[in-house]
Amino acid sequence: MVEVLKRLTEARGVAGNEDEVREIILELAAQTGAEVSVDRMGNVIARKPGLKTGKKVMLAAHMDEVGFIISYITDSGMLKFHTVGGIDQRLLLSKRVRIGKKGIPGVMGVKAIHLQEKDERNKVIDQKQMVIDIGVHSKEEAQKLVELGDYACFDSNLVVFGDNKVKAKALDDRVGCAVLLELLKDTYDFDLIACFTVQEEIGSRGGEVAAWHLKPDMGIVLEGTACADIPDVPEHMHITKMGRGPAISYMDRSSIADPELFRQMVKTAREHSIPYQLKENIAGGNDAGVIHKSRSGVPTVVVSVPCRYIHSPSSMMDLNDFNNTIRLMKEFLKGCESR
Description:
This protein is an alpha+beta fold. The protein folds into 2 domains: 2-65 and 169-338, Aminopeptidase, CATH 3.40.630; 67-154, Beta Barrel (Elongation Factor Tu (Ef-tu), domain 3), CATH 2.40.30.40. 25% of the residues lie in helices and 26% in strands. It has 9 helices and 17 strands. The strands form 3 sheets. Strands 1-2-12-3-13-16-14-15 form an 8-stranded mixed β-sheet, with helices on both faces. It has a 6-stranded antiparallel β-sheet with strand order 5-4-9-6-7-8. A 3-stranded antiparallel β-sheet has the order 10-11-17. The model has no long low-confidence stretch (mean pLDDT 93).
């Protein structure tokens, strides 16, 4: 599965420009025997017809990542940009990026610290003051490589290190996509519909369209969620803890878990001795926020893999948490027909 995670996380897929990730998922989902299609929004829909007629269970994980879009080219060939999705501006300085379909390399820069006034040095540098430097000397040279509206993403490769840990960009939510691909390998009594959604990072737009069209009886969102278990962060604000297993959410800023699904998910983890944790802070949001409100309502629950340093080029997760998320979901889905 590390090789799958490597392909998924290293692919470029900023919200609204998920093509590269979509092609990989189409290939891997088809290998599971699922019926695979792409809707008008760009979501990948992978169906596994059930052995019996009955309910439709929708699994959702989003393909897109946070990133940037080019908005202006200066006379000297520097690129101005806007962020796409929520990114902490403190981590942008000097980061490497890849731009457009050709993956043009660039570096985020700003006025040298030696030239900054004292008050400037004590402030977070605003993205508006930054440029992306692609190593050219004129607007004309830059225009041969980059166009306005081109997307850019962090340039970061997956690394396995430490005690079974992984560093990569876009673990939110390529880790969820990898879980869905693993779950598609099995066949269930009910119809399983795995949705790899677009544009979650800018308002769960793909998830809203997919849920409305599919009319599921149940929704489960697989997500990479924030993990703040580091020094100087109070324990009650850790949100999740790395290495403690998948995090089951009772509530976040976009949805409240269906009480029965939440209870059954926790019960499944306990009965099968699968490490798990409850998401300890009402933080963040995801596709569950739109799925649970679709049509006349969809019972929904969220299961997440804890990821430190989320929305950065160096997000981090524990492979044990990833594998235990797959274990939990497989056991839960086995009992879905009776629920």
